[in-house]
Amino acid sequence: xxxxxxxxxxxxxxxxxxxxxxxxxxxxxxxxxxxxxxxxxxxxxxxxxxxxxxxxxxxxxxxxxxxxxxxxxxxxxxxxxxxxxxxxxxxxxxxxxxxxxxxxxxxxxxxxxxxxxxxxxxxxxxxxxxxxxxxxxxxxxxxxxxxxxxxxxxxxxxxxxxxxxxxxxxxxxxxxxxxxxxxxx
Length: 185
Description:
The chain is an all-alpha fold. It is built from six helices and two strands; from the N terminus they run ααββαααα.
């Protein structure tokens, strides 16, 4: 194993380079056939994107739950944050977008489980869910104010952890290209 990467988020999961020097692989140990590695890797992207979409929804939901609890407890100007319309609007948008993201994940996962083509749906789920979760974490941090910026509150970690969901398994921009390609034929 190579060096451990020092990441901004997802610190509970190690990311390391794998180094193979003079490695020999028996034919019986090959996955697929020699020279087909790229094709095999590409076939796994849909399921990976669905997984990232589900991860995004989970992180976003955790941020929403923290924001709701904090908004009900924290008082400003003699009222809880939850009584302010701007806070209510943020929470309503977070809940709506995360629910829509969850449904996109379910649709893509259902297609995958049935063995049907789901490239477009996987990309839609990953793109929408990662953007919804990033926005939810941003808004949860905003609701927490200065407290959201300190490590004592979980939203700080969610904010760091969610960022990568718009990057790995294909960036949000790449997902747009895939969706357009699938829609346009």
